[in-house]
Amino acid sequence: MKESEWSNDAKQRPDPSLFSINIGEQKQIQITHPPKDFGDYNPTYLPVAGKLTWLRKRDLAELRRDLWIADQYGENAKVWIKNIGQYDFFEEKH
């Protein structure tokens, strides 16, 4: 999210989006573009599937949120599960 001064009023704080950062090249690319008044939180990369997931919601305290899924760098993003609570991913061990 854009750097800004802290405000106790949540509406005055910028909403987060996800970026891919290449540290070796000191380069960053925005990979999610939430609509106004929404933010993207809690990104999780699933290496086995090559997918990225995150929660999109209005603010950090919001209980109503959607789980999004996309390719590794944000391509083909779509809502995967609407109005989700908590979630976890587990890998099968062989």
| Beta-strand residue fraction | 35-45%
The percent range for helix content is under 10%
Name the strands of the widest sheet in spatial order: 3-4-5-6
Poorly predicted runs? none
Report the principal-axis shape: globular
Mean pLDDT: 85
Give the beta-strand count. Answer: 6
> Which structural category fits the helices and strands?
mainly beta
Largest sheet: 4 strands, antiparallel
Order of helices and strands: EEEEEE
Number of self-contained structural domains: 1
Distance between the termini: 39 Å
Radius of gyration, in Å, reads 15 Å
Q: If helices are DSSP runs of H or I spanning 4 or more residues, what is the number of helices?
A: 0
What can you tell me about this protein's structure?
The chain is mainly beta and 94 residues long. It has one domain (10-81). It has strands at residues 19-22, 27-30, 39-46, 51-57, 66-71, 78-81. Strands 3-4-5-6 form a 4-stranded antiparallel sheet, with no helix packed on it. The chain starts with 18 loop residues before the first strand and ends in a 13-residue tail after the last strand. The model has no long low-confidence stretch (mean pLDDT 85).
In short:
By secondary structure, the chain is mostly beta strands. It has no helices and six strands. It has one domain.
What tags apply to this protein structure?
mainly beta; 4-stranded antiparallel β-sheet; 94 residues; 0% helix
What is the secondary structure topology, with strand pairs?
Layout: E1 19-22, E2 27-30, E3 39-46, E4 51-57, E5 66-71, E6 78-81
